[in-house]
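Q: Structure tokens for this one, please.
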Amino acid sequence: MEANEQQEYIVALEGPAPFLDAVFETIDGHVDRTQEEYAEIITGVDALEAGDVDHDEQAALHLFVLGEVDPEEARELIGLALDRIADENNMVLARQSVQMSFEEETGEEL
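A: Here is the predicted structure, written as tokens:
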């Protein structure tokens, strides 16, 4: 087993608070219940902005993605996962407002 297999990187999501709340609950519930990755690559989720959820308010989440997954593949799989969560929660319009960006967790280059 390579040491790199356990490393993760962060994907930041910004968008409407109600939708990102649904994303958090869905992913966190799945990972806690099954002890497996969501959408085969997401190992966890962390809320960045807390407080009262207002339907006009923006929020941010961090998704923790398996380190060996290529960022292009991760972008596609995360997009599909967000589409599925949006469909399940009747939040397709809110889904369209979500911005995704990749962040470096450490200063190390791959």
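A few notes: The longest strand covers residues 8-16. The chain has a mean pLDDT of 86.
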